[in-house]
Amino acid sequence: MKFASPTVPGLERYAAQELKEYEFEIVDIVPEFVIYSAPEQFWKRRIPRGVMAIYEFLEMHRSISSFRLEEAKITVHSNAHPYRELRAMVEQELDSTNPNDRVIWATGEYILILRDLGLNALHARPYLKFRHPAALNPVLAHLMLRVAGWHGESIADPFCGSGTILIEAALHHGKITGFGVDIRKEYVAGARKNAAAAGVNIRFLRGDAQELHKYGESKYIITNPPYGLRMGNRKKIYTLYEKFAEELEEHFSGSILVVITPVSKLEHYFTVLDSLEIVHGKLKNKIWKLKI
How far is CA 279 from CA 188, 239, 261, 282, in A? Predict the structure, then answer.
């Protein structure tokens, strides 16, 4: 059977990489989606952590102007309907013809017709008992591990928040050697609560990312630092990033740093191995993979 799974926009190839490891055949990769062949009801054995949902794939149209939905007996022309109205209109037609299981998904130049399998909230991890006000999507956290090329080596998250990155690492790999640090005690308590709910043992402690070496060593540093967009003070963020970079330069030379931030700063200190433009929380963002 063919399936289609949405993932973090910009990280489709990393989601596809995971599906390939399951020995599924990748049929196509389009913005926001991976389309693949897999055994029927494969999710009963194991659910991929790098996707948001699993739909049965029915058909795909590569341009709005060529789109034709036989069930609804309509033809849509791109010059006749603003793109924003296209999805709503076809969804209405689908609701009237197949109210139970049809899904229309317009993404980029593509229109996907899918069947709902009831597996459309895979990012809602049950271990998230505590939610950080600027929480990281667990699917994104999992894919950041793949961007890093992490395979169980020592790992640290110096802005751990609710602990999502390290919890995803432990759930994927098993027991890990690593630690998470946050300057706010309520976030550390929340991360510990989430780890307990996930059934994993991770060391979370209150501390300052600018003194990261005091808490341990790490070959991989994977983190979601504050951006300043919500905090409202860019100067403080720039100063924080500078001090953090100096700490890494002095104590973590040779380690890999993967960080998600729209702020252009850290890449000036280290060797850029990769940079990926993504969408997170409906906002454009960037993942940097850096060699310290």
Answer: 27, 25, 11, 6
